Amino acid sequence: MGANQIFDDKAGFKSEKQIEYEGLINSLYSILPTLTHHQFKKLKKIVHKQFLKKFAKNLPPKYGSLNKCFTGQEVQMFFRTIDNPKLRLLFSYQAQLGLRIGEAVRLNIKDIDFQTRELTIKSEKSNILDTLIIPVPLFRLTLEYIKPNNRQIESSAGYLFFKEEGKYSERNEQYLSKNYVRNRFRFYVRRAGLDKVYDSSDETNYDRTPRSLHRLTTHSLRHYAITSFSKQTNDNIILTAKFTRHRATAVTLTYISTTKQELYKEIDKTFSIEQVERIKKSLQ
């Protein structure tokens, strides 16, 4: 037996590092329930910092000014390719109300107030209940979808986007799985001729090949909804943050996209030819 190995009746030989790790896990389980909110945040920051230090090179590359948001033309091209009413409605909730994919697949008929058109959403990240009003066209589309599917919706505990024939569920849930929806999204994006790969990820597992990183993902529909809402409200960041259900406006700003044309136009406007000439003269 090596000096750094300990025999365990159930698991066989364990290294000292493994024993140390298991001891740390047991300690955390006993101490975590006693931590204050401030202590939790501090511990989270320490772990996150060490994780980045060790694995940052394996994280997907930052895409900087790459626009991962649908343009108006692209979103029309995308929806024209969708021939499945269920997925069309699901993606419409993302594109018009900015729902995250996990929130969209879990939409339940009980979440909708059919008198006021108000939708109650349990935010996927913050686990907080919020409400939004469903736009009239989307509300009509929802009613048109519910009518022929009412029996299946009821038998699926009220989930609008119920699974079919025991497929596409997560942990035997009664709604479509996120992975299934993402795969269908990729299918429709390709069909629309919009699929663009901007890089690939480095996988930490030796037996996994690098993943292609696509410019457009299901989250791009949320980007589109937030950007569109911001423009319609004359860039009212407070109102847009309410729409996005973000608790910090700084996060909302990262979702508001501009096209290259808009950016380049403003650059040219700011630094016009006349201004450039004046700068040149001042430097002579």
Strand content: 5-15%
CATH homologous superfamily assignment of the domain at 68-200 and 211-263: Intergrase catalytic core
- Overall body shape: globular
Would you identify the regions where 5 or more consecutive residues have pLDDT less than 50? none
Average predicted confidence as pLDDT: 81
Rg, Å, rounded:
25 Å
The largest sheet is: 3 strands, antiparallel
- CATH class category name of the domain at 68-200 and 211-263: Mainly Alpha
Helix content: 40-55%
Going by helix content, strand content and strand pairing, the class is: mainly alpha
Termini separation comes to: 79 Å
Structure description:
By secondary structure, the chain is mostly helical. The protein has a domain at 68-200 and 211-263: Intergrase catalytic core (hpI Integrase, Chain A). The chain contains 12 helices and 7 strands. It has helices spanning 16-31, 37-55, 72-80, 85-97, 101-105, 136-155, 178-191, 218-232, 237-244, 249-253, 260-270, 273-283, and strands at 5-8, 12-15, 112-113, 118-122, 129-133, 197-200, 212-214. A 3-stranded antiparallel β-sheet has the order 3-4-5, with no helix packed on it. The mean pLDDT is 81.
